[in-house]
Design goal:
The chain crosses the membrane at residues 478-497. The strands form 4 sheets. Strands 2-1-3-5-4-16 form a 6-stranded mixed sheet. Strands 8-6-11-14-13 form a 5-stranded mixed sheet, with helices on one face. The protein is flat. By secondary structure, it is of the alpha/beta class. It has helices spanning 2-7, 11-15, 35-60, 69-76, 93-109, 159-171, 213-227, 261-265, 340-358, 380-411, 419-438, 443-461, 464-467, 474-513; strands at 82-88, 117-123, 134-138, 144-146, 149-152, 190-199, 208-210, 233-241, 251-252, 257-259, 284-291, 299-301, 313-316, 320-324, 336-337, 368-369.
Length: 514
């Protein structure tokens, strides 16, 4: 009995009430699963999304400011006409009339060449020396230039046609059909001039290891740059290289090594020649003095008939000029600097190549320089002709560029147009207006405004902001955002629908119980 009593539970324990188990709780009773809290959580997600929509819209929207299209198209209809006044000194009214008629006939025959110019022939009493007019003075000493004066023999009426030919060659020396026109570099307000002395292989010996380039530039190049300072700003750099191999093997002849016309087109070995030493967006005009290797001398240029040219220089259109110099063993027994006489010859050629690349016209055959013009590399007639050419080119280029900008913005819906682009377009239009206003009184001022208009129009056209989203259209944005937003929004939509139907069921129950 005692053993059984020891194993029986106490009486109080048997009579004690049972406590419910607290290990698990009813999910419907959890505080965060209550209807109010659950719906507040879902609403907070949607609130964040709705509040973020303006930020998303701002960061993904494209700024497209309106451009003055009407002004651009009306400006494109304008055409620059530069006045050219020819004053006939000591001539009668009949001679002035003959000259005017002959010029008009010449203009009619070559209208494209005279495009953009308005020619007026004045008598001495109508002339004004301050308006940039040209004076034609009868003379019996030949054709001579003195500043803006042309001395010309006018013995009889038959010489008027010859005078018109001379005036045409001085005023409009450019012809679109001329091969020389393709050599001229595109206009730029800034140029870099790079002078390079390249030895094909200095290790072979008898190389040119130096040159007095500063002295040569001061003597032959700086006078040209000073004269053309109205049109361009120039930066000069120079270098010497001791290994500049050709990319081909010249043809070996009995007396020399020859370069064919095909060789000249690939003469510059861009892969191994470093011709520009500084980083800049300014266009570069190269002037190269090439010294062949001692075992490939003399290196000559072959003519079309197979004969060897006496000149070792040639021009690469819109790129620069090259002079091939073959030192003789007597002049260069070992490595040495370029002799002064050879340096003068080389830079004399470089100066002529520079004039050709910049579009400075030649004087007509038979026209002599006067005393005051003999030291000048560029006469007033040549400079004025170049100014007129560049002003007309710049005006046409600015108008075409502005018209292209407007057309592109209309055609491409997602092309941004910011304040900087709109400002450049408006400033370019203003510069064109000033150009037209000043063209009647000052050729130089008209050119400056034309250059400013072209620079502003080009800057607007190549603005990086306009091209930022050009290759990222709306279809691409949809393809990028859909996988990102769909995975997040679909569960939220489903949760909203569930809560809506649950709310409707609860409302029906409440209405039924009431």
């Amino acid at each position: 009995m005692s053993s059984m009593d020891s194993h029986s539970p106490p009486q109080d324990a048997q009579n004690a009430p049972k406590q419910p188990s607290t290990a698990l709780r009813d999910p419907s009773k959890l505080f965060y699963q209550s209807d109010g809290v659950h719906r507040s959580i879902i609403a907070s997600y949607w609130a964040v999304i709705l509040l973020a929509v303006p930020l998303w819209w701002y960061t993904t929207s494209i700024e497209r400011l309106s451009l003055p299209q009407s002004r651009v198209y009306s400006q494109a209809e304008n055409h620059l006409r530069l006045p050219v006044r020819i004053c006939l000194v000591a001539g009668d009214q009949q001679l002035a009339g003959q000259l005017q008629d002959s010029i008009q006939q010449h203009v009619a025959k070559a209208s494209e060449r005279w495009n953009g110019l308005k020619i007026d022939v004045l008598q001495q009493g109508q002339c004004n020396s301050n308006d940039g007019s040209y004076s034609v003075i009868p003379s019996d000493k030949g054709i001579t230039l003195e500043a803006r004066q042309l001395s010309y023999p006018l013995a009889d009426g038959s010489s008027v046609s010859k005078l018109v030919d001379t005036l045409s060659a001085l005023i409009v020396p450019y012809s679109a059909a001329s091969e020389q026109e393709h050599r001229v570099a595109q206009y730029s307000p800034r140029y870099r001039l790079s002078f390079s002395l390249l030895n094909e292989d200095a290790a072979a010996g008898k190389a040119i290891i130096g040159w007095d380039v500063e002295q040569a530039i001061n003597r032959y190049i700086h006078p040209i740059l000073s004269r053309l300072s109205t049109l361009h700003n120039f930066t000069i750099e120079s270098q010497v290289q001791f290994h500049a191999p050709l990319a081909f093997t010249p043809q070996e002849l009995d007396v020399a090594y020859a370069l064919t016309s095909e060789d000249l087109t690939v003469f510059v070995n861009s892969a191994e020649w470093t011709l520009s030493s500084s980083a800049s967006n300014d266009p570069v005009l190269h002037f190269v003095l090439f010294i062949p290797s001692s075992d490939r001398r003399p290196l000559k240029i072959a003519n079309a008939d197979g004969s060897l040219s006496a000149s070792g220089a040639f021009l690469l259109p819109q790129w620069g000029g090259i002079v091939i110099h073959n030192p003789t063993p007597q002049d260069v027994p070992s490595d040495t600097d370029l002799p002064p006489t050879d340096l003068d010859q080389v830079f004399s050629v470089f100066s002529n190549q520079l004039l050709a690349l910049l579009g400075v016209p030649h004087l007509p055959v038979g026209v002599q320089r006067g005393v005051s013009e003999r030291e000048a590399l560029i006469t007033d007639w040549q400079l004025d002709a170049l100014l007129r050419r560049r002003a007309l080119e710049n005006a046409e280029g600015a108008q075409d560029t502005l018209r292209s900008i407007v057309k592109l913005v209309d055609q491409i819906e997602n092309m941004p147009v910011g304040e900087d682009v709109k400002g450049d377009v408006q400033d370019a239009l203003a510069a064109l207006d000033k150009m037209y206003a000043s063209s009647r009184t000052s050729l130089e001022q008209a050119f400056r405004y034309s250059a400013q208009a072209l620079t502003l129009a080009s800057r607007a056209f190549f603005n990086p902001g306009m091209l930022a989203l050009l290759y990222f259209p709306t279809e691409h944005r949809v393809a990028v955002y859909t996988p990102l937003f769909a995975s997040a929004l679909v569960p939220l939509f489903v949760a909203v629908l569930k809560e809506f139907f649950a709310w409707r069921r609860q409302r029906k129950l409440l209405l039924a119980n009431s």
